[in-house]
Every structure is written in structure tokens, then in C-alpha cells.
Specification:
single chain, 558 residues, alpha/beta, 9-stranded parallel beta sheet, 6-stranded antiparallel beta sheet, binds (2R,3S,4R,5S)-2-(hydroxymethyl)piperidine-3,4,5-triol
Length: 558
């Protein structure tokens, strides 16, 4: 090998090494594109090449149609200690005439986020976004006015709904082209700064008021064989399917061929809707990702109290019944994210956290009762983000609205803890405190130790009512740095540690400090001793570091 061959090999080697260690591919301009990295059942959202956890808030539906209305959104998010804004962008305003695009609102949103040091998730309100009884409220006028070309789904009585049929290829292509144009624009204005970190594709998709589309094209597909690709996915994942789908399929003796009713029985209409809505949206997402591959997700309208059959909720929205069908139908959608407004937050969150799906809360109630679920999302569920809906007026004239205090307190303590949480996710060393109906709650920490949270501002008595909770007054997180070294952060509760073996007692404290974290480095500010030697966050929000005296080794003889 001569010298120039040697140096060429060296250059190739250096390039390969650089690519291997550099992580995600860089687009000219510097920072790597945001990515959702999936290793086994672990998920990490990577922003600027580093793990990123979303403390967010979503603007009201119409706030992004006028930049002036975004001012309170930015101010509120800053006052809330949020790091990410979720803001809608509207097909009808972006493409007022076919093929003519106007991105000035998108540019204003990106500029506003940058000025306030926030990252952005843009919500594509395209074919699907429910408003009253229409699912296609945000389609441009030229789509609404041309039902012959952009034809509608039909109900069981063959009546057209005000919703594009998932079988309408002209609408799918138009939506995909518009979304690709949006992604091309974002790429051109944001590749060097990466303000936009994720895209929501459509909003709470599905068909309301019908169990499925009953248009002639849909009826033919319903009686045709279930697509082989879906059957293969279900066979490959047969031991891990969600309970409703597994039961419906088992009832049909795990048939691998046949029409939708033959394979899925009673679940067939919803399964059918999920597949075809999912395929449509995947085509839109794929067109956008081809241009600029940001991580993309879809949000789901979860089944709410009082809704008993598909059509009460939009049939085909990614409910737990049909989550697996969505996974097969939409490989370009990385996350199926539940919008949880109801009291049984933890139950729904548990349904959506799967080996194939991380927990991402992109909508939840902007109320004190739901704010502490930020802790459970990031701790027990190893979630990637938490964003309540409708935060526009959390702060006004620089003053926090009292309704926003619990969320601001939650984000205030979480903000400096994010690097630590990123480090300890998936280790089993993160625990959350969320006040329920009872005055105390036991949090098992290990085989040796439990924590008991006490809520002096009691909110209820009597036996635990798992799905009913009053407005929460307390929330927090516990991080186990070592078996005798804990971070306890949050507000509204007092914590006691209890040993689980030996004499019934609480361990002695070695020290309690109040402080904060810089990165993963503890920065103590105040030593608590004497009258203050308690793990008390009643006056929170605050962050405590609690070191326990190791229990003396137990001996077998007196
Ligand atoms: C859920 C929708 O996804 C949001 O866009 C908004 O309409 C909220 N409901 C209102 O509560």
C-alpha cells in the first residue's frame, strides 16, 4: 500500500469512526435532527444529540391564527417553567388554494418559540380535527366544497358524514402533498437550529357517529380478506397483543385469513377503521418524513366515561382496543399518545405504555388535579413528555393564574431535575407522589425501605377509590441515588422513611439539605437540622437531598 492509499484508508477509517461515534446523522448546518431512539423497550427523545424530556403546554385551537394571540402562550409557558410549546398549524390557512402555500404563520410560531427559548411541537390539523360534529373542520375550503372529488365517509344508513372517507385517495394525496410542503418549509428554516422537535400528524383521528365507514368502497374492503401485512404483524406479536384485540381474535380461533368480520368478530368495525385511518395517516406522515424526518406521533381520543361503542368515540382513533392495528398500519408514526382528561389518568397511561410505545402525554387537563401526573409520567412510566392543553392564560401581566400554580410548581422542581431523571429512567429508581383520596400513601422503595407520604391538606376519607380523585394538592418525585441517599422534590406533602425489617422504626437521618441540581451535580443551599430535621415539602416547591444512616447489621443472637 503506497502512502496515498494509506492516507485514503486512514481517512475512510476516521470517517467511519466519526459516523459511529457521532450518533444521529447531521444535516448540513450542524445540530443533528431530533430522533426518537428505541432500544428494546426503552425510548429516548434525542434533541441536539442529547436526551430530552418535554415539559410542555398546548395552545388553544385558534391561538396560532394570529401571532398576537400567541403572546400570552409564550408568556404563560415561560411562567410555567416549560421547555416546549405545542402549537397547531392549519391546512386551510397554509394552502388556501391548491398548490399555493403560505407559511407566514409557521414562521411566526418558530420565531416566537426561539425568542422565548422554547422547543416546538407543531400539530398538523389536516384531514382530521374534530370540531362539533365535523371531523374535517381544518381542511381547506377547496376540499370542503368539492365532495365529488374529496368524498366523505358514510354511516350505516348510507348518509354522508362531514368527514373525509379514509378510502378517498385524492384527499390522502392532497393532505400528503400539503404536509410534505410543510416539512420542506420547516427543513429550510429550521435545519440549523432544530427548534421544531416533533410533529403531530392530524388530531384525534377517526369517524364519529358511525362504527365504520359504510361507503361502497369501504363495504367492499370490509368483506374482502384482511390484508396479509396486518395478519403477519398480529401473528408475530400474538403473545403481546392488547387484551381486547387478543380476546376478539382468540374468539375467532386466531384465524389468519378471512374478511374483517370473520377474523375479528364484534371488534371488526373498529379494527377496520383503525387500519384504514392508520394507513391514510401513515401515507401523510411518510410523505413528510421523506422530506425532513422528524419524529412523528398521533394523539388518541381515549374512550371516556359514558361512551359505550365506536362512533361514540371516533372509530379508528388509536384506542387501546386497536393499538396493535395502528402499530402495523402506521410504521412512520413513532408514538400513539393518549389525550387524558379523565380521572383515571394512571390507568389509561398504563395502557399506552407498551414495549412498542413510549408514554407521551400531549394533552391533559390544565387543572391542579392533573398537574402531579407530570411526576408519574416521567418517573414510573419513563415517559418522554407531559403537556396540558389550553395553557394560554396561565400567566397574565406577569402574574401566575392560581389555577396554574400546581403545574408551575411541578415544572419548577422538575426543570433542574431533568438530567437526573434522564439518567435514572428505566432503572426502577424513580418514584412519584400523587395525592389521592387518602391522607397518606405508601411508596415501596426497595425490599428494605418504604416511604410514606402524608398530606395534611387532606382531600378525602374512607376506603381508596382508585378511579376517583379530588383536586390534588400535592405532587412530587423521589429519586434513589443510592440505597441510603434520596432526592425528594415536590410540594404539599411530608415524607417519612420506614424500614421494612428489624424493629419497627424510621431510619435516622445523616443529613437533609435543600438545594438544586446543576446537570447531575448536587448544589446544596441550606442544611436542615434541629427543628427543621424533617422531610417536609409542605411549603414547597422544593428539592431536598436526604441521606439516611445505614441500619446497623442485624445479628442473629442478642
Ligand atoms: C381535544 C382536542 O384534541 C383538542 O384540540 C381540543 O379541542 C380539546 N379536546 C378541547 O378540550
Amino acid at each position: 500500500m503506497n502512502l496515498s492509499q494509506k492516507s485514503l484508508s486512514l481517512c475512510v477509517l476516521m470517517l467511519v469512526t466519526t459516523l459511529l461515534v457521532a450518533g444521529p446523522p447531521a444535516i448540513p448546518g450542524g445540530l443533528p435532527i431530533p430522533q426518537l431512539v428505541h432500544t428494546g423497550s426503552h425510548y429516548r427523545l434525542m434533541v441536539d444529540g442529547r436526551p430530552f424530556l418535554i415539559l410542555g403546554g398546548q395552545a388553544h385551537n385558534s391561538s396560532a391564527s394570529n401571532p398576537k394571540d400567541l403572546k400570552p402562550v409564550w408568556d404563560s409557558l415561560v411562567a410555567l417553567h416549560a421547555n416546549t410549546a405545542e402549537v397547531p398549524i392549519y391546512w386551510e390557512l397554509i394552502e388556501p388554494r391548491p398548490g399555493q402555500f403560505d407559511f407566514h404563520l409557521v414562521d411566526d410560531i418558530i420565531e416566537g418559540a426561539r425568542q422565548h427559548h422554547l422547543r416546538l411541537i407543531l400539530l398538523w390539523f389536516g384531514t382530521w380535527k374534530w370540531v362539533e360534529d365535523t371531523g374535517m373542520a381544518y381542511t381547506p375550503a377547496w376540499i370542503k366544497e368539492n365532495p365529488a372529488r374529496y368524498w366523505h365517509a358514510r354511516d350505516a344508513l348510507n348518509q354522508p358524514l362531514f368527514n373525509i372517507s379514509p378510502f378517498c385517495r385524492s384527499a390522502e394525496e392532497a393532505d400528503a402533498q400539503a404536509f410534505a410542503a410543510v416539512m420542506q418549509h420547516i427543513k429550510s428554516v429550521d435545519s440549523s437550529q432544530r427548534t421544531v422537535i416533533m410533529m403531530q400528524v392530524e388530531n384525534e383521528s377517526g369517524l364519529e357517529g358511525t362504527d365504520r365507514d359504510h361507503s361502497p368502497a369501504a363495504n367492499r374492503a370490509y368483506q374482502s380478506p384482511v390484508p396479509g401485512h396486518l395478519m403477519r404483524y398480529l401473528e408475530d406479536h400474538r403473545n403481546h397483543l392488547m387484551p381486547a384485540l387478543a380476546a376478539a381474535w382468540a374468539d375467532r380461533s386466531y384465524r389468519t385469513t378471512g374478511s374483517w368480520p370473520q377474523v375479528f368478530g364484534d371488534l371488526a368495525p373498529e379494527a377496520f377503521s383503525a387500519w384504514y385511518v392508520g394507513r391514510y395517516i401513515d401515507a401523510v406522515a411518510a410523505a413528510g418524513q421523506k422530506v425532513y424526518p422528524l419524529p412523528m406521533y398521533c394523539n388518541a381520543w381515549p374512550i371516556s366515561p359514558g361512551e359505550v361503542r365506536p362512533g361514540d368515540w371516533p372509530s379508528g382513533t388509536p384506542t387501546p382496543h386497536v393499538l396493535d392495528i395502528w402499530k402495523a398500519a402506521a410504521p412512520h408514526i413513532a408514538v400513539l399518545a393518549p389525550d387524558i382528561y379523565s380521572a383515571n389518568f394512571l390507568e389509561i397511561a398504563a395502557e399506552y405504555r407498551r414495549a412498542t410505545n413510549p408514554l407521551l402525554i400531549v394533552e391533559t387537563s390544565f387543572s391542579p388535579s392533573h398537574a402531579p401526573f407530570a411526576f408519574s409520567t416521567l418517573a414510573e412510566f419513563n415517559g418522554i413528555g407531559f403537556s396540558p392543553f389550553g395553557i394560554d392564560h396561565a400567566a397574565e401581566n406577569g402574574k401566575l393564574n392560581p389555577r396554574a400554580k400546581a403545574l408551575a410548581d411541578s415544572f419548577e422542581v422538575l426543570e433542574p431535575l431533568l438530567p437526573l431523571i434522564e439518567k435514572y429512567q428505566y432503572t426502577g429508581k424513580l418514584f412519584s407522589v400523587v395525592q389521592g383520596a387518602d391522607r397518606a400513601e405508601t411508596i415501596p422503595l426497595s425490599h428494605e425501605l418504604a416511604a410514606v407520604a402524608y398530606y395534611p391538606r387532606g382531600l378525602g376519607f374512607g376506603p381508596p377509590r382508585p378511579n376517583v380523585f379530588p383536586p390534588a394538592a400535592a405532587g412530587g418525585i423521589i429519586i434513589e441515588l443510592a440505597p441510603d441517599d434520596y432526592v425528594v422534590a415536590g410540594y404539599g406533602f411530608r415524607l417519612e422513611f420506614r424500614e421494612l425489617h428489624g424493629p419497627p422504626r424510621s431510619p435516622q437521618f445523616l443529613s437533609i439539605e435543600e438545594g438544586t441540581f446543576h446537570g447531575t451535580q448536587w448544589a446544596p443551599e441550606r442544611r436542615l437540622n434541629g427543628d427543621e430535621l424533617h422531610v417536609s415539602l409542605l411549603e414547597g416547591p422544593r428539592i431536598l437531598r436526604v441521606r439516611l444512616l445505614k441500619p446497623a447489621p442485624r445479628s442473629s443472637s442478642p
